Amino acid sequence: MATVDIDPAGDVIVEIGEELERVRVSSKTMSLTSPVFRAMFNSGFREGLTAQTSSSNPSTISLPDDDLAAFLYLGKIMHFQKPELPPEADIEFLEKVTGMYDKYQFTTPIAHIVEAPLDQFIRSAAMTDLYRILFIAYLLDAPQLFSTTSWEILITHPISFESMPAMMEHPSISTTLRGE
């Protein structure tokens, strides 16, 4: 199986998704941008790096629950490369990117990179997609996107927040926001 090199000199191979596609990254870069990866690489975890880890002898970690396209997109951002949205990128793809951003607690702000394609979706989005975009904006802490999407929801279909489908049950929504 071929390896995708986000960093050709990287010292970690990440096996992504059910097919365990291989992606080479830099543990240093990933550690600087994510406290979750920092803990994985610099602790007693099985994924921890050894003194022998190098670009010619990389460590391997497996992330079978993650999406390959979303990981490649985020990985390029974290390695200071220009990410290209896949041609089939849609709101579902951007939800996966945002989910991984949240899951690994990436510190590099990506809201501005994700906002541009979402701004294009807003004007033609169905109501359920507007709710999804609003949630993405919330997780990314993207106030302009949140404001634009909220306004679009208010002018096209005024309803109460509690009736927004699947929003209130999501674990990232705080209990105080739900009124609990």
UniProtKB/TrEMBL annotation:
This is BTB domain-containing protein. InterPro entries: BTB/POZ_dom, SKP1/BTB/POZ_sf. SUPFAM superfamilies: POZ domain (SSF54695). The lineage of its organism: Eukaryota, Fungi, Dikarya, Ascomycota, Pezizomycotina. Residues 10-87 form the BTB domain.
